[in-house]
Amino acid sequence: MAKIIKGNHDGKNGENKTYTIPGRGSNILGKTLAREIEKENKHPNYGVYERNGEKYIRGKADNKKNNNVNN
To answer: Structural domain tally of the chain?
Structure first.
């Protein structure tokens, strides 16, 4: 269960295709994290946002900046 997930800004227009979790490593595919969040109930402070068929990871609203993906 990750407390911090950071986006790598490695997509065509700076979007996050891969993510970094401290202690686990970098270049974790977004679809891998989406599955872990949606189906395996891991990473409870994060949710999945879908736009134009692409899934992105984002921190749940809680007024904390330290768990925002692009912070």
So the answer is: 1
Give the C-alpha separation, 27 to 30, whole Å: 9
Is 64 inside any structural domain?
no
Share of the chain above pLDDT 70, in %: 96
Question: For the residues 35-48, what does the mean pLDDT come to?
Answer: 94
Per the CB < 8 A criterion, the answer to whether 34 and 54 are in contact is no
Question: Do the domain assignments include residue 66?
Answer: no
What are the Cα distances from residue 51, in Å, to 46, 48, 65, 66? 16, 10, 22, 24
Global pTM? 0.84
